[in-house]
């Protein structure tokens, strides 16, 4: 005969929060053992890679642990991975360099136009 197992809590449905594992007790009886939801590691906002150095907990438990276990001592620590931060720094640097180059090119073209205008005026007079 097959031994049946019933839920031990009030919720009688097979939901995500009401998962059980069937366990045989020392007395030989099968009992339902409620399992907790698995915790997922926090992910990087840009790359989606799990963050290193941060505790893996359920969301509510982050309120009770210390700040050193929730972050990494770096810019965007606990939000972005090291590679994402590095990429952002490099991208910002290159954008600034590009702005400087554009400004220089614009100044050179304007100075060339001004010298060209002076030459054309001199040619018209002659």
Automatic annotation (TrEMBL):
Bias (Basic residues) ranges: 116-126
Gene Ontology MF terms in the entry: structural constituent of ribosome
Keyword annotations: Ribonucleoprotein, Ribosomal protein
Cell inner membrane keyword on record: no
Single GO cellular component term: ribonucleoprotein complex
Any one Gene Ontology BP term: translation
Region (Disordered): 31-52, 107-126
Gene3D superfamilies according to UniProt: 6.20.340.10, 6.20.370.70
InterPro entries: Ribosomal_eL34, Ribosomal_eL34_C_sf, Ribosomal_eL34_CS
Family as reported in the entry's similarity comment: Belongs to the eukaryotic ribosomal protein eL34 family.
Protein name: LALA0S01e02168g1_1
């Amino acid at each position: 005969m097959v031994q049946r197992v019933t839920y031990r809590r009030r919720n009688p449905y097979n939901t995500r929060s009401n998962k059980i594992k069937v366990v045989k007790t020392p007395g030989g009886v099968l009992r339902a053992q409620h399992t907790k939801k698995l915790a997922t590691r926090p992910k990087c906002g840009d790359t989606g890679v799990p963050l290193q150095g941060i505790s893996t907990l359920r969301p509510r438990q982050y309120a009770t642990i210390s700040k050193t276990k929730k972050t990494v001592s770096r810019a965007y620590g606990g939000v972005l991975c090291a590679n994402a931060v590095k990429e952002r720094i490099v991208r910002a640097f290159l954008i600034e360099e590009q702005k400087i180059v554009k400004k220089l090119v614009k100044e050179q073209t304007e100075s060339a136009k001004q010298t060209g205008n002076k030459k054309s005026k001199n040619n018209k007079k002659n």
